[in-house]
Design a protein that fits this description.
alpha+beta; Nuclear Transport Factor 2, Chain: A; six-stranded mixed β-sheet; 4 helices; about 25% helix
Length: about 120
């Protein structure tokens, strides 16, 4: 995958972590596919509406994202992986390994799958 493509997917992922996008159902709906599925780091399974309903209450995730990669699986499908750090109440941090699958449909990229797996903090 070319460098500029990696930057595009990093920008998509980072935008989903901003308060501006998280608090905007319209922005979320434009990025998240209708048949989206997430396996959360909590062990829960979420769909698109769950994410939109909970978006304003999600914890802040630090950027830049660490160990970011984007791998083309087909001309219309990209796998993104990275490590994130979430600031918890009381100032503690929680790291997670994350993976996302982005698919091209209707000439736009949409997030179709996401998974977060908690790992010991690197701090």
């Amino acid at each position: 995958m070319e460098d500029h493509d990696i930057k595009v997917f990093r920008a998509f992922e980072e935008s989903l972590l901003t308060s501006e996008v998280r608090r905007s159902p319209d922005r979320l709906m434009s990025l998240i596919a209708e048949d989206f599925v997430e396996f959360g780091s909590s062990g829960r399974i979420f769909d698109r509406q769950d994410v939109i309903d909970a978006a304003g209450a999600l914890p802040d995730i630090s950027t830049p994202l660490q160990d970011f990669t984007a791998t083309s699986l087909s001309p219309t499908t990209v796998l993104v992986t990275y490590r994130s750090t979430t600031r918890q109440l009381g100032g503690k941090t929680q790291d997670a390994l994350r993976s996302s699958v982005w698919m091209m449909s209707d000439h736009d990229w949409h997030l179709i799958f996401h998974q977060g797996t908690r790992v010991p903090s690197s701090e």
